[in-house]
Amino acid sequence: MIEHACVLCAVYRRDAEPRQYERAQADDGCRRRLDGEIVDVRDLFLRLANPEAPDVDDRTYEAYDSQGEFIGLRRADPTSVFGGMAPTPARSAQPSVSGSRERQLPINPDIVDLLAPARSGGVRDTMVPATRVEHGTVIHRRIVAGPEGPQVAEEVYPATRRRPVLDDDGSAVMVAAGDQTGKQSVATVLDEIVRDWRDSLFPDERLPVPTVPLLTDWLLVRSTAACDRHPAIAEHAREIRHLRTELYRALGESEPLPQVMWGVLCRTEGCDDVSQLVRRPGSEYIECDACSRLYTEEEYREWTQLLAKQVRPKGRRRAGGLPEWATTTAAAAEADGPAR
Ligand SMILES: [Zn+2]
Ligand SMILES: [Zn+2]
Known about the structure:
Layout: H1 9-12, H2 28-49, E1 60-64, E2 70-75, H3 109-115, E3 127-129, E4 131-146, E5 149-164, E6 174-176, H4 186-201, H5 212-229, H6 233-250, E7 259-261, E8 277-279, E9 286-288, E10 294-295, H7 297-309, H8 324-335
Antiparallel strand pairs: 1-2, 3-6, 4-5, 7-8, 8-9, 9-10
Bound molecules: zinc ion (2 copies).
């Protein structure tokens, strides 16, 4: 275990060494990630609760018969008469259990569960199939910057998933539903985190009204203190991350990926050669994933110009210099506009 290792890196940067923090217990980059994800949960929740009217394509075109006679106007989108089609949510990643296929409900139960009000200590006595957690591994491939340019790195992670428990006859074992059924509502999960922070860090404060906007506001104001002192901050960060994923899935969207600035090294003294500069969706900064240094748009432009000037005739790396691929890519990126 490294001394002063950030406890949130395990949540946000699972494939990298944890960064060192300056202020216990989390580094600045992970603190920003936590706040960003709390904001995402609030925004995604509000979008799910107040779906936008679908885009209606009400354009028409002129239709002609095979003789070239005008026969009238046709609609480009026939469903526009009914106000268009709403977006269709993506398939759930939950494992489907064969033999227990239910008729489709006219509403999406996952969305109803996610939007439900906070309930603390509520008990449902419905019986549901018991599940157990199964451990396996997942191979994750990603592209990293290597000495010869982008290359594929493979990592194996432990992963868990739920499987139904079967009895000797092969039928599902039923248990009373606790958290086994449906999804916990966003407000319920946030309310539990709020209560936990209040009890351990702010015992004199009152709890906020448990709506998602008020709970997230409450958490944002106190996240610095929680990162400093709450022993379970990593677990809470993981729960918030999970909510965010569930909300994206319920909206039928995938999580937007950060933009990687290929071949641009970090400016921080001693920062790793293969450091990756990335821009997270919605962020105005470019960030080094290795040391969490932030670059404004202008600092980034100045830095890439400086890198471009350092192109050397030989590809050899020298003290203070850069490998050829790094500088040429930076120069090319500068010429072609923003790096991809
Ligand atoms: Zn961290
Ligand atoms: Zn860096």
